[in-house]
Amino acid sequence: MGLAVVVPARAALRNERGINLTRMMSPSFQRENRERACELKFLLSPAVAENVRDWARHKLEPDPHGNGSAQDEYLITSLYFDTETFDVYNRKGSFGRSKFRIRRYGMEDLVYLERKLKTNGFVSKRRSPTETVEIRRLSALEMDREWTGLWYHRRLLLRRLKPVCQISYERTARVANTSHGPVRLTLDENLRAVAAREFHFQPDEKCVHVSPSNVVMEMKFRGDTPTLFKELIEKFALSEKKMSKYRLAAVALGLVPENIIEFPAERNSVCLNP
């Protein structure tokens, strides 16, 4: 199966974060499956989040793709999909177990077609890299069987999924290897969203701040909760919160009725040129 992007035979092409794009565009990287992992989520106040960030920077290593003074920060923008009747939001049948999104890091031209699947409490991902301009292919009713995004396009059509909103935020990410495997801690803040109807990323010049008084923290690991994370939860008296950024954004944008969501939304904060 060939890729739509042709990379000239020359020195390795690298993006702004130093990632080897030439290698990632090779056939062996067309499909990436991530092992199943446990995922715990928390909503933190900015003050608590700052203390957790300091703790994490002492206990864990920076994300290998991070920037900033601590080499652990980067921008994430994701385009989320749902049906006309918001079956994903309402967790209707199998729609409640999977989310489809396209993820972009910073302002890179390389993006990821991603399906996030939750089964029996475990989260797994399948993703394929492609160029930003290529995602317009997903608007077609005819599938290109030579495109690396074929599997993704097929599922969008079968499930009648369309772009619903774009969500952006700044992430702090720290990682570690433990005796039970790798662990990852992320803090996502300044969540903002814009409604979306097209298969492309757009500037968020006019956006809605999503839950601006909270920072979303996620812990990812395999097996039982690592001692390191148990220490963190106890130290800051944290309580897990079942939630999703997409569901928060859908309410904040007024796409769904506010009274059917399980956590408070803050819908009065609109940002201009964030």
Q: How would you explain this protein's 3D organization?
A:
- By secondary structure, the chain is of the alpha+beta class.
- It has a single domain (31-272), classed as VTC, catalytic tunnel domain (mRNA Triphosphatase Cet1, Chain A, Alpha-Beta Barrel), CATH 3.20.100.30.
- Helices cover 16% and strands 36% of the residues.
- The chain has helices spanning 21-24, 46-59, 150-159, 227-235, 245-252; strands at 32-44, 61-62, 73-82, 98-105, 110-119, 122-131, 162-178, 181-195, 206-209, 215-221, 270-272.
- An eight-stranded antiparallel barrel has the order 1-6-5-4-3-7-8-10.
* CATH C-level: Alpha Beta
How many DSSP H or I helices? Answer: 5
Amino- and carboxy-terminal Cα gap: 41 Å
Q: What is the alpha-carbon Rg in Å?
A: 19 Å
Q: Could you please say which CATH topology applies here?
A: mRNA Triphosphatase Cet1, Chain A
Structural class of the helices, strands and pairings? Answer: alpha+beta
Shape: globular
Features:
274 residues; mRNA Triphosphatase Cet1, Chain A; eight-stranded antiparallel β-barrel; 5 helices; globular; disordered C terminus
Brief write-up:
By secondary structure, this protein is α+β, with helices and mostly antiparallel strands.
Topology (SSEs and partners):
Layout (H helix, E strand, L loop, with lengths): L20 H4 L7 E13 L1 H14 L1 E2 L10 E10 L15 E8 L4 E10 L2 E10 L18 H10 L2 E17 L2 E15 L10 E4 L5 E7 L5 H9 L9 H8 L17 E3 L2
Antiparallel strand pairs: 1-6, 1-10, 2-7, 3-4, 3-7, 4-5, 5-6, 7-8, 8-9, 8-10, 9-11
